[in-house]
Each structure stands twice: as C-alpha cells, then as structure tokens.
Specification:
This protein is of the alpha+beta class and about 160 residues long. The protein has 5 helices and 7 strands, in the order βαβααβββαββα. The relative contact order is 0.21.
Length: about 160
C-alpha cells in the first residue's frame, strides 16, 4: 500500500475461461454501446434491470444496478474516447458476469476507505458486492475491460 492507496492488479481469474467452458451454461443477456455522457449511467442501469428481470434474475437486480452505476461512472470519468460497451452474461444458474469496456489510459485502483475523501469509494463498493472483480487490457482492441461476477445465491442469503 502506497500513500493510502492499494493498487489492484489484474485478477488471476479469467472470466473468459468460465464463459468458454462447455460445462457452464452461458448466455449473453444484453450488450450495448453507450456514449461517454452522464445520462449513460441511467441508461445502462435500465438496460441491466430489464435484462436481468426478463431472464429471471430478480434477486441480482439491486446489486447489479449498484455495481453497474460504479463501473459505468468510472468508465466515463476516467475513459478516453467517445463510448464504452456494457455486456451482461449469465454464467450457470445464478451467476451474472458484467463487463464495461472502453478506452482508458489509467487502470482501476482500489483506494483505502478514507471517509474524508470526496470520492474514490466506488470500487470498494464493487469489491463488497461482487463475488469477484478485476480488469484486463484486451490486446486486440486496446480496450480496458473492468468486470465483476455477481452470485445470486449470495443475494438470496442476504
């Protein structure tokens, strides 16, 4: 930890491996490109709410909306370019994979829990709600993918 900040490194978990595993049922529930604009946070939340509700993942809606708000806001605030892509996939029975991909010069950083700071707690919230989360740079398209897995069985137990 340096200067009160903890740097997040890419997680050793590769969601692509799970998504490509033939033993795991997987479905793309929704995918959409959004402009870097404040209204995109609301529009992304609505896309996720609708996709999860239509596919019977009601127990994940609340967590997913909060996580998407944080990931999309980070993409808009720290991104470069004009747009980002939001993808929601169902992995297995109650697990949802959410991915926000866009151009960025920076990397997601999990900051310390400083209550006096004006911002910087979004990824702490993602870390709290998600089963796992991380980021990766796609060498093919140069996009930063910040992703998380939400576990519906955790939501049911809460």
């Amino acid at each position: 930890m340096k200067g009160g900040f903890m740097t997040l490194t890419p997680c050793d978990f590769d969601p692509g491996l799970v998504a490509d595993d033939p033993r795991v049922a997987r479905y793309t529930l929704a995918q959409q490109v959004f402009p870097f604009a404040p209204a995109s946070v609301r529009d992304a939340r609505e896309m996720v709410r609708q996709a999860l509700s239509e596919h019977g993942q009601h127990c994940l809606v609340g967590m997913a909306l909060q996580v998407v708000s944080e990931l999309v806001t980070n993409s808009i605030v720290h991104g470069i370019g004009a747009e980002f892509t939001l993808t929601v996939k169902r992995l297995g029975f109650r697990t949802v994979y959410i991915d926000v991909a866009g151009r960025s010069e920076g990397r997601p950083t999990l900051r310390s829990n400083d209550l006096s700071a004006e911002g910087g707690r979004g990824l702490l919230l993602v870390d709290l709600l998600a089963q796992r989360w991380g980021w990766r740079m796609d060498e093919d398209d140069g996009l930063l993918h910040t992703w998380c897995l939400l576990d519906g069985s955790q939501a049911l137990a809460a």
